[in-house]
Design a protein that fits this description.
Tachylectin-2, Chain A, Jelly Rolls, 2 domains, six-stranded antiparallel β-sheet, 34 strands, binds beta-D-fructofuranose, cytoplasm, EC 3.2.1.26
């Protein structure tokens, strides 16, 4: 099969199930999702020639067959996205079992992709290759004959060696790869190149073989290395981390360390590992720099090996997060909703300084299943306060976000979302009690993203309430809060 035939096969399946997929109430309003089938990691984020590209891991044939290719979205404004034909098809000997994750760079006006070719040999064993593809029109990609540019893993590592993230530094190309050491420790390695074709390893950057990070599991996926406020940030997804109280409660984790990279030696001195998101579904984010100097992040609202969703019956699974801008504050990466998202706002409703005292209150005009909501709670003496979204008393449904002022914990609870009835339905983290809590919420049909205190913490999760669960209730217990809210439908 050639790539045109593959693209045809994808279009056929997209067309075949279009109606079934589109009729699903849980299709999102303003998040990127696959036309049909399975989506995972965002790949190849780039701004080039006045346009933004987002590629993604795409298996349109899910759940029947598995052929992982790169889906492709393009936009001029980061808001309206056009879905383009599949960019990379798994048709070569070096990527026959999947064009796995990778990144994009601008090489003299050409869009160049670097990705991992995943292969299963005759014994079912994995082989791993780092490969290039390039395009002059940003739509059609060619894989050069010199592929693969890195054959197999480097000595000392297993075949779990993937997800190249490439960037330019002082006129040289650099790349980080996610890896596993032979002693089954997670790791990231640094490579460099003058031409994107000939690569040499610089050194391992960091790994869970170091005693400080020995809790960080057996494999690190999807690393990103970028600077923010003169700090080097290494963002990655460790697998095999044990839960520690409120921390690391998901099957796999995503977090970062801040430090300083020596590009000559690969030495990386850094601080502690910090979790990036506190919710249930957040993984494999990718970062891009824009021409106006912003650092933007886009994540996958899903997790590997977690295929639980009512949408599977309608032949699609997973979506991406909203785009977020990263900033550094008090030695922490904070996340702000992309400012362009304001353009989606419709019909503002606002309330200022409403007192809520030991009661539950609905506010006229504040409800819905697709909205942006900004809340500021000010308080002196109160035990607990919060919001019930997608509230429906007849069906006993709600998505609960509250602050426990006594224990200084912010808590997200989806046990009554109508689907996730499992015991593990709560996530929380510490937020200092200083008399004020802000919650900035992006609700879509089947997801919620909550930014606490200007992005100091985020909770990102899929939720599956009924379509008539649309009320919003504000409440306080054991005292009063002063509440100001802005609400827009999206
Ligand atoms: C992360 C990941 C990557 C891999 C890709 C395959 O979710 O496992 O490490 O490249 O997904 O789809």
């Amino acid at each position: 099969m050639n790539s045109l035939e593959f693209i045809k096969k994808v279009s056929y399946i997209e067309e075949k199930y279009r109606d079934k997929v589109e009729k699903d109430y849980y299709r999102q309003n303003y998040h990127l999702m696959p036309k049909v089938g399975f989506m995972n990691d965002p790949n190849g984020l780039i701004e080039i020639n006045g346009e933004y590209h987002v590629f993604y891991q795409y298996n349109p044939f899910y759940p029947d067959e598995k052929h992982v290719c790169w889906g492709h979205f393009r936009s001029k404004d980061l808001i309206t996205w056009e879905c383009l034909p599949v960019a990379l098809s798994p048709l070569e000997w070096y990527d026959s079992h999947g064009c796995y994750s990778g990144s994009a760079v601008n090489k003299g006006g050409k869009l160049v992709l670097m990705y991992t070719g995943n292969v299963k040999d005759s014994k079912g064993e994995r082989e791993t290759y780092q490969c290039l593809a390039e395009s002059s029109d940003g739509v059609e990609f060619k894989k050069p004959y010199i592929n693969p540019v890195i054959k197999n893993q480097h000595e000392g590592y297993t075949r779990h060696f993937r997800d190249p993230k490439v960037w330019k530094h002082n006129d040289k190309w650099y790349m980080v790869l996610g890896a596993q050491r032979e002693e089954e420790k997670g790791s990231t390695v640094l490579y460099c190149s003058d031409d994107l074709q000939n690569w040499s390893i610089v050194h391992e950057i960091l790994g869970s073989n170091l005693s400080k990070f020995d809790f960080l599991g057996y494999m690190w996926e999807c690393p990103n290395l970028f600077t923010l406020d003169n700090k080097d940030v290494l963002l990655f997804c460790p697998q095999g981390v044990d839960k520690q109280g409120d921390l690391y409660n998901n099957i796999y984790q995503c977090g970062y360390v801040l430090g300083s990279l020596n590009y000559e030696t690969g030495e990386f001195s850094c601080g502690d590992f910090l979790e990036l998101d506190r919710g249930f579904e957040f993984y494999a984010p990718q970062v891009m720099k824009t021409s106006d100097g912003r650092t933007l992040l886009l994540g996958w609202m899903g997790l590997p090996d977690r295929e639980v969703s009512p949408t599977i019956d309608n032949r699609w699974l997973h979506c991406l997060t909203i785009i977020r801008e990263l900033k550094m504050k008090d030695n922490k990466v904070v996340q702000k909703p992309l400012r362009e998202l304001k353009r989606l706002r419709k019909g503002k409703v606002e309330y200022k300084n409403k007192i809520i005292k030991d009661t539950e209150t609905k506010l006229d005009g504040i409800n819905g299943d697709s909205f942006e909501l900004k809340c500021k709670f000010e308080f002196d003496k109160v035990n607990q306060f919060g919001i019930k979204m997608r509230y429906n008393s007849h069906k006993d449904e709600e998505i609960l976000m509250f602050y426990d002022a006594i224990n200084e914990k912010i808590v997200f609870d989806r046990s009554k979302d109508g689907f996730h009835k499992e015991a593990d339905a709560e996530r929380k983290c510490f937020i200092k009690n200083n008399g004020k809590v802000k919650m900035h919420i992006f609700m879509d049909k089947s997801s919620v993203e909550i930014f606490i205190n200007d992005g100091e913490e985020t909770f990102t999760s899929r939720i599956y309430p009924s379509k008539d669960s649309k009320d919003i209730v504000f409440y306080s217990k054991g005292g009063e809060v002063r509440l100001s809210v802005d609400h827009w439908q999206i």
